[in-house]
Amino acid sequence: MQGWYPLTSNPSRRVVVVGSGVIGTACSHFLTELGYEVTILDRADFGSQCSSGNCGNICPSHMAPLAEPGAVRHVVLSWLQGETAVFIKPRLDLSLLTWLYQFARHCTKRSMLDACRANHALLNQSRHLYEELITRFDLACEWHTDGNLQVFLKQKTLAAHDRKHALMAKEFSLSGQRLEGDELTDFEPALRSGLAGGWYYPSDAHLRPDRLLQSWRDSLNERGATIVEHLEVTGLATSGSTATHVITRSGDVAADHFVFTTGALTPKFSSQLGCRLPIQPGKGYSLTMRRPELCPALPVHFVDHNVVATPMDTALRIGSIMEFAGYDDRPNPDRLQALKSGARQYLQKLEEDPTEASWCGWRPMTPNGLPRIGPCPIANNVYVAAGHNMLGMSMAPATGQLIAQMIDRRPLTLDPRPYAING
Asked: What secondary structure, in 3-state letters, does 226-255 show?
């Protein structure tokens, strides 16, 4: 592939970032800020995978992992009762069975709090960095800082969240406001009456993901980053303890440092990276509809159905669902219908068939709810940043900053040990 890589590159400052989702984009941003010459390789369009169709919530309040006490029972009951918030496709898959076993082992209070602590650090740092990035680089992404509302249909789930909030407030000083009855509908008039209650988290924010990625791409282009789309990386070549180039279907691409930000596909590189990456694809769904006449003013999480509705300037995006069906990228119409029917139980005046676009994509799910960020055992110049579960958009800036600091041998803003890559 000679010719497209800048011939004037400083040979000690070249970085290849594999993957152009929000994590890869953030890594590329902070590396270019430190003077590195970055080339981003992606097998598809820039930012077109999981980063493009999510609900755009930036939520420090969502530090708790899926693996928490009682989660196994909840998932099993949901599956057996035919509910679609969590779906596991029955199949003989050793990697999935291993993942589920590890997930069950992490469903303890101690493990949950360990994950909360590490997630809290990434989420809070990212929330702070978003404010700086959006202002300094004029990222046009429909940025709003009016918080997030979690709403409950049943008293049972509200009571469970009351207990969780009390724990998060005690351990992490999480600030929130409990709302019931008329308080809730006065706070958000788009909600139906008769809901059990809700919790408002003022520190959260939201944005439009596709516009963030496009604006960030423009910023990277201005700073000289090279973006190559529709180029699939198939391997990594090493010489001793140093990686020399990635292998693609169109030739080799050499660099001095390599960062794999390949989301749910990262385990496919496990043997070449020399590490175990317990990541399973958890398919999520979203649909984007015309903004209804009575639209929520801020993101609303319908907790009983695991559905989120995020208002955008001209649209409303409804998303979530968790489908463990392997690397199957086909959309299931039943899941999309479940999003609509779930949202209608909470929102009033939602049109019957207002969909403008639908999407599904693989979330990179880890059994303990923590991403994997750091150097790989295979070589001293290869890094992974993947496994952000449902929080990639919320954690991207801090992840990118951490990877750039590692590569540049700078003091680290965050303790990297909770996210370490195991051999």
From this structure: EEECCCCEEEEEEECCEEEEEEECCEEEEC
Task: With respect to residue 18, please indicate whether it lies within any of the assigned structural domains.
Answer: no
CA distance 420 to 272: 17
CB 384 within 8 A of CB 372: yes
Give the residue numbers spanning the domain of 175.
73-106+144-205+280-365
328 in a domain, yes or no? yes
Consecutive H or E run containing 361: strand 355-365
SS3 286: strand
Please name the amino acid found at residue 313: D
The reply to whether 319 falls in a domain is yes
Q: Tell me how far apart the alpha carbons of residues 302 and 237 are, in angstroms, rounded to a whole number.
A: 46
Domain count, the chain: 1
**Mean pLDDT score, 4-27:** 78
| CA atoms of 75 and 199, how far apart (whole Å) | 23
373-395 CB burial, b ≥16 within 10 A, e <16: bbbbebbebbbbbbbbbbbbbbb
Given a cut of 60, whether residue 11 has pLDDT beyond it is: no
Query: What sign does the CA torsion over 66, 72, 73, 76 have?
Result: positive
Place of tokens 């960020």: 373
Q: What is the pTM of this model?
A: 0.95
DSSP 8-state secondary structure symbol assigned to residue 36: -
Residue 83, pLDDT score: 64
Q: What is the CATH number of the domain that holds 335?
A: 3.30.9.10
Determine, yes or no, domain membership for 370.
no
> Both tokens of residue 287?
């649909």
Q: For residue range 322-361, what is the model confidence (pLDDT) as tens digits? A: 999 999 999 999 899 899 999 999 999 887 656 789 999 9
In tens, the pLDDT along 154-185 reads: 999 999 999 999 999 999 999 999 999 999 99
